[in-house]
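HUMAN: Can I see a protein plus its fold?

ASSISTANT:
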Amino acid sequence: MKIGVIIPAFNEEEAIGNVVNGIPRGLVEEIVVCSNGCTDKTEQVARKAGATVLKENRKGYGYACLAGINYFKEQKIQPDIIVFLDGDYSDYPSEMVELVREIVKKNVDLVIGSRNTGQKEKGSMTPQQVFGNWLATNLMHLFYGVKFTDLGPFRAIKWDALMQLKMQDKTYGWTIEMQLKAIKAKMKTSEIPVAYRKRIGVSKVSGTIKGTVLAGYKILTAIFKYL
């Protein structure tokens, strides 16, 4: 199995080295860090840790993820599985093994790492994150009949399934778009518990009022968009 990793990052120089170095090297083929307009040393630190670094100056989580996907599209041989995780070291990169195993052993198309069913450090998620996840996942259950417990960014998906989804969201709605489109396409999805800790640095989404409001808006509109 050829496994690629995509890590969107915006000014994560203090964390990105830990993230890249924490990934089991025997497991993955290539680690791609998508610099989303970084103005610090994120790119240099990521390269030193052994990652391929891409530049995507258009601000937005989705833009960064799409840059990573387009990079893998251009390779002679595409990966079998893509793993997404954040660059702030809130996830435990070693748990990537469990996400990949879920796909390989159970033939799952998309697996979400659920922070809400795993070991979550106190204070690692803001109150607005907790409420937003609760509201979104309950609305998904109500309208789509599928029970997720999290919109967690730590996730793995088969390459062919990812291509089928034709991801489009450029900003805050990326994660929920993937889950909703997978549901609509009747893909096999699952969740596994993952550990979660306080991030290094300040969140650019839940750590700001603007980010929180825009993320909430995108999540809610996405739920009704795909009905």
Observations:
- The CA atoms of residues 40 and 224 lie 38 Å apart.
- The chain has one domain: 3-225.
- The radius of gyration is 16 Å.
